[in-house]
UniProtKB/TrEMBL annotation:
<feature type="compositionally biased region" description="Basic and acidic residues">
    <location>
        <begin position="500"/>
        <end position="513"/>
    </location>
</feature>
<dbReference type="InterPro" id="IPR019734">
    <property type="entry name" value="TPR_rpt"/>
</dbReference>
<feature type="region of interest" description="Disordered">
    <location>
        <begin position="500"/>
        <end position="538"/>
    </location>
</feature>
<dbReference type="GO" id="GO:0016567">
    <property type="term" value="P:protein ubiquitination"/>
</dbReference>
<feature type="compositionally biased region" description="Acidic residues">
    <location>
        <begin position="515"/>
        <end position="538"/>
    </location>
</feature>
<dbReference type="Pfam" id="PF14559">
    <property type="entry name" value="TPR_19"/>
</dbReference>
<dbReference type="Pfam" id="PF13181">
    <property type="entry name" value="TPR_8"/>
</dbReference>
<dbReference type="GO" id="GO:0005680">
    <property type="term" value="C:anaphase-promoting complex"/>
</dbReference>
<keyword id="KW-0802">TPR repeat</keyword>
<dbReference type="GO" id="GO:0051301">
    <property type="term" value="P:cell division"/>
</dbReference>
<feature type="repeat" description="TPR">
    <location>
        <begin position="462"/>
        <end position="495"/>
    </location>
</feature>
<dbReference type="GO" id="GO:0045842">
    <property type="term" value="P:positive regulation of mitotic metaphase/anaphase transition"/>
</dbReference>
<dbReference type="InterPro" id="IPR011990">
    <property type="entry name" value="TPR-like_helical_dom_sf"/>
</dbReference>
<protein>
    <recommendedName>
        <fullName>Anaphase-promoting complex subunit 7</fullName>
    </recommendedName>
</protein>
């Protein structure tokens, strides 16, 4: 079997509920268990996952999982029902945690306990305490001890990868031979190779080798179809590298498998906002509030929803998410973006730095914060740091290009960086749009049009149509501009830039100054619309 059930039971017995439910997600999605021929096994697996989710206090997910188990239980042949019932009840009994005395032990007392005398629960708690207080060496030591005791502590694998351990180093910690201490052993045959692949994937992602990480996760997904944890990991990486459509698709797949997942749904909310898909965003926030309104992801999602109506209110939601969990990275990213919008770039830099200290990715390099208050030198330093950390990243190259493009003397350098980014990743539309904008600034409208039209042959993207429409409008080719704005809205009816551009264009075509102030009546209508949306949300 791919995932030994007794290991999930052991994790539950040691109150390692998060690792238990992550491992449980592999158990229930394993392609080696055929639900039609072995419904009793499927039911048992789902009960184990439900137990882990219940103890992790993800109650709505637990109920959803138990209901699935009951559906499989109903199709078990009657002759097997007695044995299945006893197996299910045994599963329930064995998964009950047998000790919670660790709650009464404080940090100083735990440090006084020799490492060999600490159980699995103590070792993981010590690792988290060390990491939260930035004692990296102590954290690494305790996480390593966790994996020596049990190779299936998924939390420890992820943490060690993020703290810089290599895949070879992590895999070497897994128990190799039988021992008298009752520690979990890892079968190094084909059935456990998935765990080694998982370690390699996490180490790739932590070292910013996003392409390698995605390839390994995709390989794992074939073995564990519809695994919510793998799908979420893939979606997170795709969001970081700008593959927004793929990320949205994977987030939606997770919600179709388990509509009660809250983890990472704030990152999904950010992508929906970028796509201007407010109907889906509104529904997502309502769903999250009904599942568990105490989670940091819910407050980030609320912040995303409120951003276009009340930036200060949105900022308070982002700050609330950080108060709930000081290690919640999307909270810092959202806070940084809102502070930029509120023209507080110095504070934005601090927020992005908070995200970077937890886990540096391309979104946390505060390049545009520095540019917002003309600190070009600091912006260039941050962009180069990103490029050093991620030399094979087209997005990092674009960041350097953005800094050079911010002043007239650096535009030729910017052009080279944008072109390098496109050579490295031809499908990176962000670099294509930035290069087109550079062409327009320097009066090369024909080059901008030919570049954008070339990309439109392969990518039917609304942002490409909007940029083309803007170029045509600037050169007074109003009919061509109209055609591309309409194409953008056909692809994405919620595209705000296309809507606003079309409004301006219609005024231009009527001979009206598009920058003239609007009437008071129109402003009042907008306010009424906003109030109605707020009422619907509440």
């Amino acid at each position: 079997m791919d995932v030994p059930k007794e290991q999930i039971t052991a994790l539950l017995d040691n109150a390692l509920f998060n690792s238990a439910q992550l491992l449980g997600s592999f158990l229930v999605s394993s392609s080696t268990v055929n639900a039609e021929t072995s419904p009793h096994l499927k039911a048992e697996n789902l009960v184990l996952l439900g137990d882990a989710l219940f103890r992790e206090r993800e109650y709505r997910r637990a109920i959803h999982t138990y209901k699935q188990a009951l559906q499989y239980y109903k199709i078990i042949p009657k002759q097997n029902s007695t044995s299945s019932r006893s197996a299910l009840s045994a599963s329930n009994r064995s998964s009950s945690p047998n000790s919670f005395n660790i709650c009464a032990i404080n940090e100083n007392e735990m440090e006084g306990i020799p490492s060999k005398a600490r159980n699995l629960q103590m070792s993981l708690l010590m690792a988290k305490l060390y990491r939260n207080t930035k004692h990296t060496r102590g954290a690494v030591t305790c996480y390593r001890e966790c994996l020596r005791q049990c190779p299936y502590v998924i939390e420890a694998i992820i943490a060690l990868a993020e703290l810089g351990a290599s895949a070879k180093d992590i895999i070497s910690l897994f128990p190799q031979t039988p021992n008298r201490g009752g520690r979990a052993q890892l079968d190094h045959g084909d059935s456990s190779r998935w765990l080694q692949r998982y370690v390699e994937a996490q180490c790739c992602i932590a070292s910013n080798d996003y392409k390698g990480g995605l390839e390994l996760l995709a390989e794992l997904l074939q073995r564990f179809p519809n695994n919510t944890h793998i799908l979420l990991e893939m979606a997170k990486v795709e969001a970081i590298i700008g593959k927004n459509d793929e990320a949205i698709m994977n987030f939606e797949k997770v919600r179709s498998v388990d509509p009660y997942v809250v983890t990472c749904m704030d990152e999904y909310a950010m992508l929906l906002k970028m796509k201007s898909d407010y109907s889906k965003l509104n529904k997502l926030v309502h769903d999250l509030l009904s599942i568990d309104p105490t989670r940091p992801e819910v407050f980030v999602a609320l912040s995303v929803l409120w951003e276009r109506k009340d930036e200060r209110g949105a900022l308070s939601y982002a700050e609330k998410s950080i108060k709930i969990d000081e290690r919640h990275i999307p909270g810092y990213l959202m806070k940084g973006n809102l502070l930029l919008a509120l023209k507080r770039p110095e504070s934005a830099v601090m927020a992005f730095r908070g995200a970077q200290e937890l886990r540096a990715d391309l979104r946390s390099y505060q390049v545009h914060s520095y540019l917002a208050f003309s600190k070009v030198k600091e912006a260039l330093y941050a962009a180069r740091e990103a490029m050093k950390a991620m030399p094979q990243s087209a997005k990092a190259l674009k960041l350097v290009g953005d800094v050079h493009a911010s002043n007239s003397g650096g535009r030729e350098k910017a052009k080279k960086f944008y072109e390098s980014a496109l050579r490295l990743e031809p499908g990176y539309l962000g670099a294509a749009l930035a290069l087109a904008e550079l062409h327009v600034i320097e009066g090369r409208n024909g080059d901008a049009v030919s570049l954008l039209e070339r990309y439109l042959k392969d990518w039917a993207d609304d942002s490409l149509h909007v940029k083309l429409a803007q170029v045509f409008a600037a050169t007074n080719m109003l009919q061509d501009s109209l055609s591309h704005y309409q194409s953008a809205l056909r692809i994405n009816p919620q595209n705000e830039a296309a809507k606003k551009g079309l409004e301006r264009l219609e005024k231009q075509m009527k001979g009206v100054d598009p920058d003239a102030p609007e009437d008071e009546e129109e402003n009042e209508v907008d306010d009424a619309d906003a109030e109605q949306e707020e009422a619907e949300l509440l």
